[in-house]
Give the backbone structure.
Amino acid sequence: MAILIRGGTVVDANRTYRADVLCHGNDAGGTIAAIGEALDAPAGATVVDAGGQYVMPGGIDPHTHMELPFMGTRASDDFFTGTAAGLAGGTTSIIDFVIPSPKQPLMGAFREWRGWAEKAASDYGFHVAVTWWDQSVHDDMGTLVHEHGVSSFKHFMAYKNAIMADDEILVKSFARSLELGALPTVHAENGELVFQLQKEMLARGFTGPEAHPLSRPPQVEAEAANRAIRIAQVLGVPVYIVHVSAKEALDAIVRGRSEGHRVFGEVLAGHLVIDESVYRDPDWTRAAAHVMSPPFRTQEHRDALWNGLQAGQLHTTATDHCVFCASQKAMGRDDFTRIPNGCGGVEDRMAILWHHGVNAGRLTPNEFVRVTSTNAAQIFNLYPRKGAVEVGADADIVVWDPQASRTISVKTHHQNVDFNVFEGMTVQGVATHTLARGELAWANGDLRAQRGAGRYLKRPPNAAYFDAVRVANHRREAKPVERKAEV
Ligand code: URP
Ligand code: ZN
Ligand code: ZN
């Protein structure tokens, strides 16, 4: 059934204007049918009154880990509960990560994740992690790009003895990504340094969560970000740095970009607003609930991240949504290195960015749309099907009341976890309605997310980025010097 969003102000990445938006229901394609003034409601259409509200592209969270098997347990939000929570907060698509165990074939892991994700309530795509290397990995990367629409690969530079990619893997996988026109992405932390610093902290008697940030200082992130960027630069491939949390890592991105290299940066809602002192909370369970990597940092870093977002040096906002309940975090009661790493936020990212970004004067509403939706759609090649309010685009829309406020709490959130890292934060700016492919999935507090309604998003390679890089890459055209044989 059609939905007419009436009387609102459309905000996309470039423009703000008054218009009604008519959407086809999912049965008729779930796309935007018309945008204009005073549109008539077709017979039987549902009318959403958007008076005084903004009508924006639904959020895209390009970094989530639903039901991830990790550190001896499994993330407690599955693809249904996690995407449903996202819809309640205005996020209509996620890009999650397939993470093969070392030696697990990439295609096998991909099929496994595809199966789990069939219950998703919103649309979803996948990045696939390269955690080991042999000819089959090289070949599977090609199959994933050419046959399955996976056009980004993930590399964990941390998590030694588990999923860490060393320099050899980075170089081989980045080079293969370049061949395929796929975008390499990295979790930038020097895994060897983390491993040694963790051992040092344990040896000095630190067993609690306060040791987590001490074992992962900003320089550990900066070194890895810089290394990944330099490797990508030498090979001539664009690179995307996930969850940038440290000023020094941002500096590496700015440096690379200023040298003409195509580097993208992602920042998490949590890294923008949460302080490192959470790890010194006298309550072990609360402190452990914040254990994620990279860790939350000091105000100096948060200021730099906001500046980077404002300046366009950081391009996307995400959550790294990867939640574990207190009983799971307790696995690390006596050893902080065993606390499952991960925090939530898929439901709250949009509100955090609006409240602390737009309301604080750091972002315009159009910039908000760019960093919560359009840039991710463009970088990961979903645009303009996603990330735009345009005729023909998917009707993934959030109706946003900039006057309404709510207080974030575990008591009211829809995420399947017993903690919320934004607990008690009052935010002004609320998703009143969320449309997913032309269906109302959230309406004035009523969550109508449907299990299995989400579809898999194929993302072809983004040729434009690669053409731009190739032009600048003289090394490939160089020829060996022909020398006369010595007598
Ligand atoms: O602590 C985190 N971030 N857990 C999820 C896995 C990752 O590193 O992205
Ligand atoms: Zn990570
Ligand atoms: Zn992650």
Q: What stands out?
A: The domain at 59-390+456-467 is CATH 3.20.20.140 (TIM Barrel). The pocket of zinc ion (ligand 2) is lined by residues 187, 242-243 (CB under 6 Å). The mean pLDDT is 97. The two ends are 85 Å apart (CA to CA).
